[in-house]
Amino acid sequence: MSAGELYALLVPLADERLLVPRACVAEVAALPALQPMPGAPAWYLGIMAWNGRSIPVVSFEGACGQPLPGGGGRSRVVIFSCLGRKLPVGYFGVVTQGFPQLLRISPNVITADDTRVFGERSPVLCQVKMVNELPLVPDLERLEDMIADETTVTA
After folding, report:
1. pTM of the model
2. Would you say 147 and 92 are in contact if contact means Cβ atoms under 8 Å apart?
3. Which end of the chain is more exposed for a tag (fewer CB within 10 A), N or C?
4. Is 108 helix (H, G, I), strand (E, B) or coil?
């Protein structure tokens, strides 16, 4: 890998894709039956057991105010390492609609795309143009804050 390049994952959602640094992802796991979180919003799908921890699992689409996608046989959970310290367990999961694709990206293949505007409280930082893809770059810290506001999950 040369200077300026980084490994990233292209994470499939229902109608979009997320572009996330590989270093933020702890694991991609099968989607288990989730333990419901009473009183949580619909986008907060529940709790899953992972590596001796109980971690919150959410729908990114739902957190953005979009309808929740239906689950399917290809659904997975991308487990993210927390960037902040608001979730004591240190991790959270986002349901995907398939397997993430590993990419090596560099500044010459990615540019900002300002055709869409995302609200200040949205868990989306921006959209980028990458060859013929227009993935979203999530605000993982904002998503973590949203989850922390809805949960009392402990390690």
Report:
1. 0.92
2. yes
3. N
4. helix
